[in-house]
């Protein structure tokens, strides 16, 4: 039998039989209650999950900020110490040449120059901390 | 289109109105009133196994609940709900195929049938079951189509909406499915119309 020559009588009988055999299944008992329970469970889990995720994110951000702060302080301190030692070392090495050119006042000149530079840098830093831009 | 309760189906505008007023619960309640049964029947038709269909229907409706706030009314409400349901069922079918190919399990544990449907009056000579078994022998697509067509009281427009395809495609598919079933009957010597007429009340 091809798709085009179904016996009309068989087709009608089959249609009626199929309508009986393939009745629409009813909703299972307690379907709505289970759905509501699942919905509530999911909502509850979601709120808890969101809260936990936000707390985790907050903790991570705090830890990152703290690490960055410590790193910056270390870098600053390292730079300051490094610069101071390099300057001191350089001055000691250059002292014979400085004495030869500027005479016995060279150490005092360098010391006063260092003090002036330090004061200048300190003032600039204080201006940056207390100035209007920092507020 | 009307619901079984005789009132018009909840429209997208109605649901959107409720959502705008912040009445998500109420909107979902309206959706459930109209689509709970249909979603379950669609799952039954596509999956053919009651327990699995129940899980799929539950999960589909949960997905609808979750996505309801994002529903913007661009798609029709029913099309949107059925699309969510179909996607869930397709995932289940694809998982089943993978699982089947792994252990060649036969899916006849609790198919849709009288043993699981208390509302179905059973013919004493088992011809209804025989017919159901024959339908199960059809390829997947015609099998799903036949089930849904009869679940939906032979409404081609409803079936088309639920499957997301044109009515013409449904009609052609149904014709082919019935022809394939008739061929099966012929091969088994069951093509005598009187055999099936006798059981018709």
Describe this structure in words.
The complex is a heterodimer of chains A (135) and B (201). With 135 residues, chain A is mainly α. Helices cover 82% and strands 0% of the residues of chain A. Chain A contains three helices and no strands. Chain A starts with 7 loop residues before the first helix and ends in a 5-residue tail after the last helix. Chain B has 201 residues and is mainly alpha-helical. Chain B folds into two domains: 12-96, Rna Polymerase Sigma Factor, Chain: A, CATH 1.10.1740.10; 104-197, Winged helix-like DNA-binding domain superfamily/Winged helix DNA-binding domain (Arc Repressor Mutant, subunit A, Orthogonal Bundle), CATH 1.10.10.10. Chain B is 67% helix and 0% strand. In chain B, α2 (24-47) crosses α6 (140-151) and α7 packs across α8 (167-187). Chain B is elongated. Mean pLDDT of chain B is 83; it is low at 104-110 and 113-124. Classes of the chains: A mainly alpha (135), B mainly alpha (201). At the A-B interface, α1 and α2 of A face α2, α3, α5, α6 and α8 of B.
| Count of individual beta strands of chain B | 0
Describe the sheet with the most strands of chain A: none
Q: Helix count of chain B, per DSSP? A: 9
What's the Cα radius of gyration of chain A?
43 Å
Task: Give the overall shape of chain A.
Answer: rod-shaped
The CATH class of the largest domain in chain B is: Mainly Alpha
Low-pLDDT windows of residues of chain B: 104-110, 113-124
Radius of gyration of chain B: 19 Å
CATH topology of the largest domain in chain B: Arc Repressor Mutant, subunit A
For the termini of chain A, the CA-CA separation is 91 Å
Percent strand of chain A: under 5%
Oligomer: heterodimer
Give the count of structural domains of chain B.
Answer: 2
What layout of secondary structure does this protein have?
The complex is a heterodimer of chains A (135) and B (201).
Chain A: H1 8-21, H2 31-102, H3 106-130
Chain B: H1 12-20, H2 24-47, H3 50-67, H4 77-103, H5 127-136, H6 140-151, H7 156-163, H8 167-187, H9 193-197
